[in-house]
């Protein structure tokens, strides 16, 4: 099996050539259709690894930006746990989870990071400027699904960005559990909820500002931030998907056309 990967990836040999001229390296149980499946899944796996590498590179650049730039002092710091989550990704869904989490916390800061990098490392006439910009585009390139919904995501993030810019993430952190702790409690209760001494509306008075002029508005904004954080936590998304797949049942019935075409010889006849 591993020989097939090597021939396809390293030696760039096509499946028919491997099947007919490298038979001695291929298990006898694998026919040419199996080799095509191996080839296709290996291509998907390599693509996934490339995207993980780009996201990790972007995270490291963001961490460097946070460490070296005083204006980024109030941001959530990229942690080793964040990078370990990317290293542990095994599926496209998992990569989407960590990508959306990164977008929530650091999406608005990426353009600022680029400008800062240009000021620090490149002058206007530097010949490496174009190469650096190409590396960034490669590091931030997303798949077709994300490209189609990028505008939609930006609209959804406007409110949470406003909340974070006005310091409501501080209020959100007082809800008793971090998003990761909440996710771990979905399996079994590992973390106790930290109780605040102040009433919610009383605590919210500390965060009243022009954009959120009342305690009620502050509390609503903080709830929105917490909801967003939970919805973007990779472990929460993974557990919810798993539970849906294990417990969800869908009832369907054939249409008029289906009733006419599904006869005893049709593969769906037992489920009609």
TrEMBL record:
Residue intervals of the Helix-turn-helix DNA-binding domain: 4-62
Biological processes per GO annotation: nucleosome organization; transcription elongation-coupled chromatin remodeling
SUPFAM superfamilies: Tex N-terminal region-like
Transmembrane segments: none
A Pfam family that the UniProt record links to this protein: HTH_44
GO molecular function, one term: nucleosome binding
InterPro entries named in the record: Spt6_HTH_DNA-bd_dom, Tex-like_dom_sf, Tex-like_HTH_dom_sf, TF_Spt6
Coiled coil regions in record: none
Gene3D superfamilies: RuvA domain 2-like (1.10.10.650), Tex N-terminal region-like (1.10.3500.10)
Protein name: HTH_44 domain-containing protein
Species per Swiss-Prot/TrEMBL record: Onchocerca flexuosa
């Amino acid at each position: 099996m591993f020989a097939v990967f090597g021939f396809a990836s390293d030696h760039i040999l096509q499946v028919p050539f491997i099947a007919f001229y490298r038979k001695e390296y291929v298990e006898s149980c694998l026919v040419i259709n199996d080799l095509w499946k191996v080839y296709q899944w290996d291509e998907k796996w390599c693509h996934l690894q490339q995207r993980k590498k780009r996201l990790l590179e972007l995270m490291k650049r963001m961490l460097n930006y946070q460490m070296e730039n005083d204006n980024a002092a109030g941001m959530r710091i990229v942690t080793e746990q964040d990078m370990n989550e990317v290293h542990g990704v095994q599926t496209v869904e998992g990569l989407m989870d960590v990508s959306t989490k990164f977008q929530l916390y650091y999406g608005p800061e990426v353009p600022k990071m680029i400008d800062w990098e240009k000021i620090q490392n490149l002058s206007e006439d530097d010949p490496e400027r174009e190469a650096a910009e190409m590396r960034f585009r490669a590091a931030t390139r997303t798949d077709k699904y994300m490209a189609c919904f990028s505008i939609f995501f930006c609209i959804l993030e406007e409110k949470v960005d406003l909340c974070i810019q006005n310091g409501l993430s501080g209020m959100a952190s007082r809800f008793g559990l971090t998003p990761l702790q909440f996710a771990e409690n979905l399996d079994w209760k590992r973390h106790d909820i930290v109780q605040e001494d102040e009433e919610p509306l009383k605590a919210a008075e500390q965060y009243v500002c022009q954009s959120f002029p009342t305690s009620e508005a502050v509390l609503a904004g903080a709830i929105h931030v917490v909801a967003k954080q939970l919805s973007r936590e990779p472990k929460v998304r993974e557990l919810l998907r798993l539970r849906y797949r294990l417990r969800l049942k869908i009832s369907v019935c054939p249409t008029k056309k289906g009733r006419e075409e599904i006869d005893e010889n049709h593969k769906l006849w037992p489920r009609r």
